[in-house]
Amino acid sequence: MKYDLDRYFLEMALKEAEIALESNTYPVGAVIVDEGNNIISRGRNQVYPNKDLTAHAEIDAIRNAEDKILHAKVRGEKLTIYSSLEPCPMCTGAILFAHIKKVVWLLNDDLGFGGYRKMKGTLIFEDRFKKVEMIPEPFKDLMERQIYLLERWAENPNHIENLRKIVQKGGI
Ligand SMILES: [Zn+2]
C-alpha cells in the first residue's frame, strides 16, 4: 500500500506543533509542499518566542518559503499547506494571497479562531476559495494527538486564560 502523503506531511506539521509547545507557545505547526511533494518550508507558532501576535504557524511557513512561494504564485504551481489546526481568518487570508491550492488540517477549531470554513461559507471571495481544495480532519489518530497538545497548552503558564488569572490576582 502506498504511504499516504497527506498523512506524512501532517505528521511533520504535528512535529512542528510539538516543538512550538516546548517553546511555550501555541502548539500549531505547518508545512508547505510543492507539486512534486518537495518540502518548500516548515513553520510553527512563534507568538510567544517572538512576541509577535501575528506569528502563526501558517504565516511562519509562508514567510519561510521566501521566493519559492512567489515563484509558485507567478507560475501557477500547485502548492499545498498542511497545518495541525484549522487556519484562523488571518492565515486563511494569507493562504488565499499566496495562491496555495490545497489546504489540509488535522483538527477543526470551532472553539477558537478557526476561520477557514467560516470564511469560505460566507461566499465572500467565493471565486478564490473555489480554487482551493480543502481537506479537514482526514486522520482521527493524528487529530487526537493535536487535541492532546492543545490540552497540554491549556496548562501552560503562557496560555491566555492562565495569564489573565495572574493579572486578576494583581500580578504582571
Ligand atoms: Zn492563524
From TrEMBL:
Record-linked CDD domains: nucleoside_deaminase (cd01285)
InterPro entries: APOBEC/CMP_deaminase_Zn-bd, CMP_dCMP_dom, Cytidine_deaminase-like
Residues in CMP/dCMP-type deaminase domain copies: 4-116
Pfam families: dCMP_cyt_deam_1
PANTHER family: CYTOSINE DEAMINASE FAMILY MEMBER, TRNA-SPECIFIC ADENOSINE DEAMINASE
Coiled coil spans: none
Gene3D superfamilies according to UniProt: Cytidine Deaminase, domain 2 (3.40.140.10)
Naturally occurring in which organism (per UniProt): Heyndrickxia acidicola
Keywords: Metal-binding, Zinc
Protein name: Nucleoside deaminase
